Structure formats: C-alpha cells, structure tokens
Amino acid sequence: MGGTQRKPDGLRPASSEMLRIQAVECLELLLKRSSALRFACLGTADGRLLASINADAQSNGERIAAMTSSLLALSESFAKDALRGHCNYSVVATDHGSIVVVRVPHVGRGYMLSVGADGSEVMALTLRAALDTAERLSRIIADASAAAA
User: Fold this and answer.
1) Are 141 and 104 in contact (CB under 8 A)?
2) Which pairs with CB-CB distance under 8 Å and at least 24 residues apart come from 72-79?
3) Helix 123-148 to helix 13-32 angle, to the nearest 10 degrees?
C-alpha cells in the first residue's frame, strides 16, 4: 500500500544509492593513498557488488565481489576447521602483487572489502590500508542504516 519499497539489504532505495555513492568516494580516497593500489571492491556476504573502483579497466566489480565472498567464506571454513577461530582477513600473494580481503565490521548483514596492489607495495601497507578503509566503510554503512530506520 503506498509504503516506501525497501532494497533486499533493508535500506530504502534512496538510502541505498547514498550508501553506494559514499562507499565509492571512500574507495576513491583509498586508491589515492598509493599508486600501487590497483582496485578496491565493497561487496556483500552473498557476493553482490555495492561499490568498486578500478585503476585498471581489466577488473569487473561484480566478478570481484563474487570472488571476494567465496574467498572469505572458504577462509572462514579453513580457520574454523584448522584453528577453531574466525577469519578476519585473507591475503593472496601473486607474482604481480597482492590482494587483501577483509571483513567490514558491521552488525547485521556481512560486508567485505577486497583491495589489490601491484608488486611495488609492501603487503603490510596494503593490509593496513584495507583495514583502515573497512573501518571507515563500517561507519558509512551504520550511518546509512540509521538514516533508513
């Protein structure tokens, strides 16, 4: 009956669009930190893309969001089975750089961030940048959730 429709993630369409815009701005700031950072992607636990920024046009945001979700789910299962713990982040080292996948600390729906860097960046710096950005994104998501309530 005439009520405002909600997106699947519980946000009104306007709030969801504002969240996407603010998330893109946050990811743009992240990539400006270092020329070594090649992409950043924010997705949901079920693999849906919320926002992505690519320094190279080679990456597809939807595909990266889906792979990010799968990688963190597999890492979580491995951590539970191997150490009876939770996975907070995962790092993939490649010949051409590294990819860091971190959980965005937020109550409720799961969000995850993946950040890729070329080989000129120290992996620890990529991890620190990803963790700091995940914290910023957590506040953005919380604000958007509060505005939608």
Assistant:
1) yes
2) 72/45, 72/101, 72/103, 72/112, 73/45, 75/101
3) 160
